[in-house]
# Entry
Amino acid sequence: MDATNPAPLETAPAPLEMRPRRGFSLFWRTFFFLSLLLFGSIVAWLQTFRALESEPRAIQSAQQLASLVNLSRAALRYSDSIARVSLIKTLADEERVRITPREPKDKYELFESDELGERTAEELRARLGGGTVVASSVNGQKGLWVGFAIDGDSYWLLTDPSKIGPSRNSTWIIWLITAAILSLAGAAFIARLINRPLKQLSFAASRMRDGDFDASLLDEKVATSEIREVNIGFNRMAEQLSKIEQDRVIMLAGISHDLRTPLARLRLETEMSVSDADAREHMAADITQLDAIIDKFLDYARPEPPRLERVSLNAVVDAAVYAVADYEDMRVTVTIPDDMAVLADEVELSRVIANLLENARRYGKTPETGIALVDIAAKARDQWVLIKVRDHGMGVAPETLSKLTRPFFRGDAARTAATGAGLGLAIVEKTIHRMGGVFGLANTGSGGLAAHIKLRRN
# Structure
């Protein structure tokens, strides 16, 4: 075994290092579609309201202005020069209407600032004649200017632009922003209300996946009938799975325990009654293998959750490597930074490393030398520690990788040269999941199988 000159591991990214695809949660997707629907409805409603309200408002404003112009025109036409001056002064003081002569050199801007202004100007020209001019400023002075003629003389009538109505753009924007904010708040509330049962169901399913059946119970008294039925069905399923899990544990533990006694008795009888040393050695080896298989059953049936604490990865790996140091058919290389610690159960993690080393020794021997060359490496990434245990054997078929962690599954003949219970990798995966980690298997580019472990960094 060589632990001082580590060989370089594969440089290709491990499956556990690849970042998962980011996506929208169900809450944000529901919120987005509700907001889009509400915002579209608000815009459609505003446009419809403006279209239905603009025409009557333009006609009413044009009628008022036309009446004001006609009254001013009639008063000026039938009054003498002295009375005309007094009339103009009275209109300016009391009605805020100023009448001035219109000069050919006057510079003006047409009153067509928005849809309402254009429609009002058209209506005024239709009522007062084609020569009527509606302007927003004359010679730089802002206001509502209406140009008309009296017996060939041209005049300007200046009045308050509010007679048509205040500028509507800012009003509509304020209403639109207010409605949008209220709609977004309502959409967020509705989305949260809709997705709350799904979030609770997702949490309960995750707890059930980790074996915590008691924490996975859902409320069976919710008001919504469909959700209540789903919760009741989920709880009954959790109860059945819990019972099945308990029965499985009791069955495996009982079988394993009951087999231990006859095996011990058989070992004793073999040692005492078999005279042939070679036969006695083979029979003892078979009994030892059966005893090891029983240990695998007990490990797989262990129901207690692990106790997570700060564990020195260096110490765990060194202990596991020391246990196989005397094996002549195995060489282990370790590449782990100093003071590497993970959040795990020390006993469980030791069992995981031991199982992986045993699996590599059995099935990962190099075809040329018949020796299992095993590389163990680890590195920290963000809040996780990535551990890699690989051999330099023949690997496995790609379609077999996902099946290797199934209980009692055997791979192809290349990796089944030794006998066993078929529980080693299943125990490893189950143990890693119980410690809140991730476990995966992959073939390496240069040959051999690599086991990838992802545990929380302490």
